[in-house]
Amino acid sequence: MAGPNDTLTRHVESAELGSHVTGLGFFGTEPVFATGDGEVIIGIGAGSRRVAVHTGGILVAAAEKGRIVTGGDDGRIVATASDGTTTELGHEKGRWIDALALGPSGAVAWSAGKTVTARDGKGGIKTFAAPSSSRGLAFAPKGYRLAISHVDGASLWFPNVAGAPERLEWKGVHLDVVWSADGRFVVSSMQENQLHGWKLPEKAHMRMSGYPGKTRSLSWSGDGTWLATSGAEAAIVWPFSGNGPMGKAPRECGVRPRRVTTVAFHPKSLVLAIGYDDGMILLVRLTDASELVVRHIAPGGAVTALGWDEHGDRLAFGTDEGQAGCLTLPGGPA
Amino acid sequence: MSEKIPVTVLTGYLGAGKTTLLNRILTENHGKRYAVIVNEFGEVGIDNELVVGADEEVFEMNNGCICCTVRGDLIRIIEGLMKRRGKFDAIIIETTGLADPAPVAQTFFVDEDVQSRARLDAIVTVVDAKWLAARLRDAPEAKNQIAFADVILVNKTDLVAPADLAEVEARIRGINPYARIIRTERCTVPLADVLDRGAFDLDRVLDLEPAFLEAGHHHHHDDDVQSMSVEIAGEVDPDRFMPWINDIIQRDGPDILRSKGILAFPGEPRRFVYQGVHMILDGDLQREWKPDEPRHSKIVFIGRNLKTDEIRKGFLACKA
Predict the structure, then answer these.
(1) Nearest by CB: B80 against A96, A190, A213
(2) Which of A125, A331, B62, B174 has the maximal Cβ count within 10 Å?
(3) CA B195, CA B9: separation in Å to the nearest integer?
(4) How far apart are CA A34 and CA A41, in angstroms?
(5) What b/e sequence results for B105-143 when a residue is b if at least 16 CB atoms lie within 10 Å of its CB, and e otherwise?
(6) CB contact under 8 A, A20 and B111
(7) Per-residue pLDDT tens for B48-101?
(8) Does any CB of chain A come closer than 8 Å to the CB of residue B63?
(9) What is the average pLDDT across B157-165?
């Protein structure tokens, strides 16, 4: 059997950032990286700019058009714009920022221990005390509503509505949480090496198990019908069309004898970028399982950040020990 | 893969002197950089960006193992610290005086991500020489902290008479004869005796000769937490031993605080070494037996209401 096609690696520009890559995004065509040294690095290679944003490390990061928002172990939540200017959005003195999510109209939410804070685009702040510390936050695709993962389930909170949030129950420790683009599914990853989903509004349970490790990276396909996940020796991709994945087998993409650490769906096509714990990165097309190598096994540790630009022309990545790179697809989208 | 970061767990009842020790570790010039996870921020009188407050969130793992609890906050904090590798050499976790050390220790066995990056080095317990006897009467946590310890600092020795100090140490030995006891005043102990002990390394875990074999020892059996060991002057049959130890651990795990063992299997040139916390066992074939080393098999339990006769009989029946 022929190995994966190796025609893309020469279209990758690489750089040594020197510190763990926590998260990344794009300012237009330029990748932007957030690091364990507290820096935001705009661009790659020659001409890249470093902005010292946090005095400690960056623990969480999320990017959207025109800005990357970071939370650090200095307790600050900071937005960095493409020109390198920074704006402090919040400060939890003496706490670490554990989770971060971006929402509609400039909204940002973060958690520090049990305290979850939602900040709307105008700067209005609301807080919620979760039943335990929260490691995962996700905004609903429509409206100002936040899913908050915690022990024994998740809560769906309207920051601007008084009263108790809606509770989604499932025993165990819930880590990351995602919300599908059609708003019908909330899915969490769990300490117990499985996913748990709730179909809304009836809160029907979906249990997705069989992972040898924890899932810490989840990515919806651009059309919202597939959810790719890390935590196994392949990217596990669950079908979410119709009534969701119950009773259906997931796809296994990019099977290798190494653990998948990060996944990122192309924004427009059914192509999945997969990062592994040995630094390798593959692109896999769901329709025919064809594989392309973006990066071979390399020093620098596991792939810890992976993401596409808005149009899907570029794929940026970063690793545990500070390697980074950016692939520009030759001749347009895959 | 870079080397695992050693983690020292610092326990001790309220007022025993944990904070004194912690402040010494943070301020003395020992050439090492520590990330410190504290339970109360205010007590550590030092401004260090690698000091982080913990929430002591104990989670029950939903995996069918009733005593399988982990510290969720530690998993989260260690994951965060690992983004800053290179900024520190080791991690110290301070627990509250009332904390049970088990969830802390189990976190290092149960969580794969933590286990792959950090290793539990030792559990160090600070006790107050003057008040230990009283604590053992009224605080089950104090007993657990001694039972779990690899190193016990008997602090404030200047406040008790020599006879009382001997009595205190005898009480400690009655619960845990395997820990190293160090007498101190105001926690003045060489830090090398406390840090980087390798007590949980499988190849060092079995420095099994209990200190209570020292002359002049007198035994206390009034504590419900005790220890026991059984030795076979020979090999054991793994096909009998493995199911047996798993049975014991599954059934009596809640009462077994720590367990260790070193075993000779027939035809196996290497030593099999295991250790456990409650129901969690971690074992492996380790270095080869030395030519002059008798191929003996020995197991140790520290726990509550141990069924000593049954355990002894069961282990002896595993003889190859």
Answers:
(1) A96
(2) B174
(3) 10
(4) 6
(5) bbbbbbbeebeebbbbbbbbbbbbbbbbeebbeebebbb
(6) no
(7) 667 888 888 888 876 666 667 889 999 999 999 999 988 899 999 998 888 888
(8) yes
(9) 91
Confidence class for position A234, pLDDT limits 50, 70, 90: very high
Cβ-nearest to A59 among B2, B73, B80: B80
**Measured between CB atoms, does A57 come within 8 Å of chain B?**
yes
Predicted pLDDT at B86: 86
Q: Which residues of A84-105 are buried (b: 16+ CB within 10 A; e: fewer)?
A: eebeebbebeebbbbbbbbbee
Q: Is the pLDDT of residue B23 over 90?
A: no
Quick one: average pLDDT of A24-47? 96
Query: A 74-113 residues with CB below 8 A of B?
Result: 74, 94-96, 98, 113
pLDDT band at B207 (very low <50, low <70, confident <90, very high): low
**A334 to chain B, closest Cα gap in Å:** 32
pTM: 0.88
Q: B264, B236 in Cβ contact below 8 A?
A: yes
Per residue in B230-248, pLDDT (tens digit) is 999 999 999 999 999 999 9
Most confident of A302-306, B198-202, B213-217: A302-306
Residues 6+ apart with CB under 8 A from B191: B24, B25, B28, B30
- pLDDT at position B208 is 47
Decide which of B10 and B67 is more confident. Answer: B10
pLDDT in the model for residue A188: 98
Between strands A12-16 and A21-27, the pairing is unpaired
Q: Are B269 and B289 in contact (CB under 8 A)?
A: yes
Q: CB-based contact (8 Å) between A307 and chain B?
A: no
CB-CB: which of A56, A95, A133 is closest to B49? A56
- To the nearest whole Å, the CA of B154 is away from the closest chain A CA by 33
The dihedral built from the CA positions of residue A145, A147, A150 and A151, taken in this order, carries a sign that is positive
Please tell me if residue B40 touches chain A, with a CB cutoff of 8 Å: no
* Mode of pairing for the β-strands spanning B118-128 and B151-155: parallel
Helices (H) and strands (E) in chain A, counts: 0, 30
Helices (H), chain A: none
Give the count of alpha carbons within 13 A of B85, CB side only: 22
CB contact under 8 A, B113 and A214: yes
Q: B44 CB near a chain A CB, below 8 Å? A: no
pLDDT score of B215 = 35
- With an 8 Å Cβ cutoff, is B73 touching chain A? yes
Residue in chain A nearest B83 by alpha carbon: A36
Residue B38 confidence class, pLDDT cut points 50, 70, 90: confident
User: Furthest-apart CA pair in chain A: how many Å?
Assistant: 60
Q: For chain A, report the end-to-end CA distance as a whole number of angstroms.
A: 23
